[in-house]
Amino acid sequence: MKIILPIEIAAEIEPHLPSDTKFVLVDSDGNLDHDATDAEIYLSWFFLKNPVLHRVLAAAPALRWHHAPNAGVNHILTPTYLERDLILTNGAGVHAIPIAEFVLTYILAHAKNLADLQALQAEHQWKRGFPIQELTDATLLIIGAGGIGQAIAARAKAFGMKIIGTRRHPQELENFDKVVGVDEWRSHLPEADYIVVATPLTTETQNLINEEVLRSLPPHAYLINIARGAVVNEPALIKALTEGWIAGAALDTVVTEPLPSDSPLWSVPNLFITPHCSGHSPKVKQRSVELFLDNFHRYHTGQPLRNVVDKQSGY
């Protein structure tokens, strides 16, 4: 069996595979060090670009299974990719803990007014009377109660928050007070103190958080997006923050990344921007390797694979 491995992670994968496994290494530009025409498995790595993906596909006509470490795979499901009959698995779950921790960081920073308090320290001022809030009984609406959404809920519940989640097929979930369908969540917008976007980017979720949604939130609501930039309509968000429809927002992901230096998002009031780093942790690499190796064993022994992507749904 032959596998295409990214050079960034090959040294950590190869020792754990059967001795008769053959390897083809691929660099970040899509250059292959050996013939890949009979390669059956492709492990890609983070920051995969379409030209690189398409170059590998063209060089490996016998591919049957592709594993991507990302949770979101919208950048992979190109028309060229969908022409191939490939099993695609993703890294859903490996980023859940660091992203959930980051979401609580955003929430606490807003509730405790940390930006203003840090500004006071820089100005050597001792001032009290800020509107500092607690999280007990605050309502958190999580758009997308998948693995990341559930990790967020587990941590938010420890703060005594009321948690509402959304799923395509609603079901009772631990730490959620209520889980509703893909349309019913809109009726809960007026009661949301915090709203977290944790849904995959698909044709159905693009611009999901639009002007209508933002106008339905209460003025004290705080929006957090750790999913994909295009799920939030950026012009609508800029308008909402500039005109004060909501109290603020935190974006770890935007439509155009890296965010251009002349983007109006940089100077929008009450907007906290982080450079798509909420999923970063040294343990993510370890979990990614473990997930691939477990799936390789399953593939090799004919067992069902974990995290198989429905390519039509996009996740």
Automatic annotation (TrEMBL):
GO MF, any single term: NAD binding
Annotated organism of origin: Anabaenopsis circularis NIES-21
UniProt family annotation: Belongs to the D-isomer specific 2-hydroxyacid dehydrogenase family.
D-isomer specific 2-hydroxyacid dehydrogenase NAD-binding domain location: 105-278
Name of the protein in question: D-isomer specific 2-hydroxyacid dehydrogenase NAD-binding protein
Domain D-isomer specific 2-hydroxyacid dehydrogenase catalytic, first and last residues per copy: 48-309
InterPro entries the UniProt entry points to: D-isomer_2_OHA_DH_cat_dom, D-isomer_DH_NAD-bd, NAD(P)-bd_dom_sf
Pfam families: 2-Hacid_dh (PF00389), 2-Hacid_dh_C (PF02826)
Keywords: NAD, Oxidoreductase
